[in-house]
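Hey team,

Sharing the Solute carrier family 25 member 3 run so nobody has to redo it. Sequence (358 residues) first:
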Amino acid sequence: MYPNSLTHLARANPFSAPLFTLQKAEEPQQDLRGSQRTRRLAAAATVDEDVSCEFGSSKYYALCGFGGILSCGITHTAVVPLDLVKCRLQVNPDKYKSIGNGFAVTVREDGFRGLAKGWAPTFIGYSMQGLCKFGFYEVFKIFYSDLLGEENAYMWRTSLYLAASASAEFFADIALAPMEAAKVRIQTQPGYANTLRQCAPKMFAEEGLWAFYKGVVPLWMRQIPYTMMKFACFERTVEMLYKYVVPKPRSECSKPEQLVVTFVAGYIAGVFCAIVSHPADSVVSVLNKEKGSTALQVLKRLGPKGVWKGLVARIIMIGTLTALQWFIYDSVKVYFRLPRPPPPEMPESLKKKLGLTD
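Structure output:
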């Protein structure tokens, strides 16, 4: 009754790890749209799990957004010195030869305080980005899964995650763009401005509101692929770790043990994120430094080799960032007792259709 291709798809799909488990529930199938059932299905929380709110509730979204603020704001601010050197390697490779040389030249010219340039726009910008990235991700994830239905959401779960993360990042980058533009100006143009209070009015006086949003398109080019990889790769890696590496089921792991898995999966995902998004990151750095240039002009001038300048520094930075972000975000969920999903399982109804059960 069901074609072999469907069976092969379900068994061989390499992207088969949703953050939520769609399991057989005791309620009838037709009650899937009920709010309580939908949230329990999506959350896949065990019956005896002590949670402070329902999955998909306003409180859940608010606390997820708060976790995003902490995870992105703190981590990006912590690596400002490395980010500063990475940006300078991208926009002035003749002066800054390597990571070590970049640090040495910066300290020699500006002292150790010079390594903290741009910390304020970094903290504000990435806090706002984290709020939208993680908060809207949860919103779109539930919205798209409800549209697809239980079985399709399971079979196409990675596509669902890619769509949800891309949708969330679209809005997150609009929130990030003004502060990102100011950060790059402060870090890559010596003498332009030393603080956000100096930089923002000067940029507005010179180029108007466009100065803060001219980099939003290349920012989308950089951040949307990055975020899609960040979420999809993370979810898949978590599943693989619990399936092949962790010697016991997730339900038997303590909260600290689960957070260690989160950190490892986050770092692995971060390496791939850095590679996928680095060319666009190079364009953003140069574009925000220069006046009157377009993304296409900068891309042509950098060439195939130029867009990969500073990749090693970015892999170190993004790998560490992504691991810490997932660790902090998951820790916030643990602290506030939010529903936290286990590894996925195929719905019983789909197993029967595919002939996997009697």
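The radius of gyration is 22 Å.

Ping me if you want the raw files.
A.
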